[in-house]
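Here is one such protein, fold included:

. . .
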Amino acid sequence: SENTGHMDRVGNLSLEFALRDAWDDHVLIFNALSARDPERAAEAMQSHMARILRQIDRIRAAHVALFEEEV
């Protein structure tokens, strides 16, 4: 889908500056799930998704042509 394509682009373009943060986010999510702590898991997931939204804005600004709508 279109959203999947955008997320793939964001993931690939963010590797240069966000790989460690993504790893740390996933470890926090995994640890919360392993501990069966839904509140901590939800907080970790919300934090991770907020970071992704900030990264999308940063990448979109740096690579405008990749996110232009096809007419």
User: Anything to note?
Assistant: The chain has a mean pLDDT of 83. Helices lie at 2-34, 38-62.
